[in-house]
Amino acid sequence: MMRLIFNDQTFSFELLRTLSYSPYGGADIGECLSTAYRIEEGNFDSWYAEWRKTAERMHRLAAESLDRGNRVSAREFYMRASNYYRTAEFFLHGDPQDPRILDTWCKSRSTFREALRLMEMPVEQVDIAYEGTHLPGYLYLVDETTRPTLIIHGGFDSTGEELYFEVVAAALQRGYHCLTFEGPGQGAVIREQRIPFRHDWENVVTPVVDYLLTRPEVDATRIALMGISLGGYLAPRAAAFEHRLAACIANDGLFSNQFGEIGRKLHRGNDADLNDPVYVDRFIRGLMAHHTGIRWAIENGMFTYRAASVAELIEKTEPMTLEGVAHLIPCPVLVCEAEADHFFAGQPEMLYEALTCPKTFMRFTAEDGAEEHCHFGALQYCNHRLFEWLDQTLCVKG
């Protein structure tokens, strides 16, 4: 793994993630490094406090720039403030009632929307009808012409605002309209509406496609879907049943995300013990006490699935598999793999082998500087390769 400031893998990776948005306006290198040096390693509250300080500083500078009429500077400060507020909130989910969660996340969203108002391109905040409520999204348009359109959603912990830095900016540069949205378990949908993750993601994506087909700017024959991180399971699951998609990108590929299976891999005792919920809870919480990555994954899992216990989290994630589903996907699929992925090791190959549609396997390596999960640290290179594949698949001229 890349080690950046921290020896702790989880802290190092999340710093890399935040820093990786620098090329697209979401971070500045010195700001990130100086913040990281102030953080006590492994301390979730210290992480929150220091990133919050940096975010608030950017927020103040944005307001001051706007007061002086410096719209470009204000937009840039608001963008970075949004990403830093997101980073500050990241480790807070151990207590779903913690008031810092909603306050900090809301500031991440509001500063991003302040930045959008200062953009030169048309961006719309949209509400997509969904099962008696709505899914929040952003529609980014290159111009008013009809173009191929990329739907983008995140995964286990990302927000709709973050997706701009990760993919949208690169897509717009290449002539794609983009629609990002947050589904159940994500962003505003879990924090404000309290709707948890669901495994049958086609019921989420189909209303999104329905909405896009009402827009004259969208080429209905060239709608692609990209899912990131856990989205590497969710997007292929949707593509198996939503056949109006012309292409699907799993970045990175994920065949299953069953917490029970993960627990079995970590367990070295009698497998029969794993049938005892009390034992499982004690075993997992023992791991959480000594491993920040496991602690964060369980706490965020219970938060996003609205599970009251580890046993309930295991039960709720049991359907999260593409077994018996992957072969139903008809459109071309790109499966990405990160050489040193500490989350999805072996999973992209499992997904690729299960596919029967036109398929491409794309490996990112340490030689590329892109070996980390979702290729953080090399987003420009990653987007270069992803969009070359998408251009070719959708017959888009560069």
From TrEMBL:
EC number: 3.1.-.-
Segment forming the signal sequence: none
Pfam family, one: FrsA-like
Keyword line: Hydrolase
UniProt cross-references to InterPro entries, sorted A to Z: FrsA-like (IPR010520), FrsA_esterase (IPR050261)
GO molecular function, one term: hydrolase activity
Protein's recorded name: Esterase FrsA
Taxonomic source organism: Paenibacillus allorhizosphaerae
